[in-house]
Write a structure and sequence with these properties.
One of its GO terms (molecular function) is sulfite oxidase activity. The chain has 278 residues and is mostly beta strands. The protein has two domains: 98 residues, Sulfite Oxidase, Chain A, domain 2, CATH 3.90.420.10; 117 residues, Sandwich (Immunoglobulin-like). The strands form four sheets. A four-stranded antiparallel β-sheet has the order 5-6-10-9, with no helix packed on it. Strands 8-7-11-12 form a four-stranded antiparallel β-sheet, with no helix packed on it. A two-stranded antiparallel sheet has the order 1-4. It is globular, with a radius of gyration of 25 Å.
Length: 278
Amino acid sequence: MCEEEDGLPYRASIPMLHATTPEADVLLVYEMNGKVLSRDHGYPIRAVVPGVIGARSVKWIETIIISKYECQFFFQQKDYKMFPPWIRWNNVNWSSQRALMDFPIQSVICEPGDGVVVKSGDVVDFYGYAVAGGGRGIERVDISINNGKKWLEAVRLPKLPIEAQRGYKDDLHRPHWAWTLWQLRFVKLETPCIVVVKAVDSSGNVQPASVDEIWNLRGVLNNCWHKIRINAPCPPPEVKEPGGADTAKIAAEDAKQRCKSPNDHADDEPTREFLDRF
């Protein structure tokens, strides 16, 4: 069990209105997909508070207290709060900020992975997900193959239909709690390059370009652009003309000096000819 600084069990709270509003879909869960919860998932019972930071979906629940006041313990009052970039540990005033609830919009490139090697001119498919807190839907997902200089709109994949159970009817106007999957296929690349994803939610919120804009001492709610690097193949080694020295040994040493792995190109920049196209 996770323990607080004072040695007591983990405790957290959400407003009563949030807990009792049907549209918020707050659950007390003892089964998942028809099976009893595993210990890792919170057995014997846990809370699920969708659209809200995970710290409010408490696992391994022992006690539920109805109170007039917000939880006053460590993880509610001195942990999950967001402060301005200039606040440091030596001048933080925990009571000056509210406990976090909704998480911000976020998007991720799942495939290909960071650091893959692709030849210039090859075609690549990109896949990932986007999600927004508070039940807000995803309006758009943008992809850049040149580190944010020009953008392409990804295709948002339709959600899988929910099977009707005892009269349940899927309502398209209900809050959007789940990931929105997206794809962008048949993208021709010039490598090396940096690929970026950002998303926009139904309230017009967009991800910041850099973590510098949202840095905070707790490191929470970091939703800046997700980036991956696509590397170019290592150049072939130059084989020396046969002479007095051993040609194979020279070639091997030359290859070692020129390119040990694709990571040797981690700091490569796209060519000027490539950037001029945009």
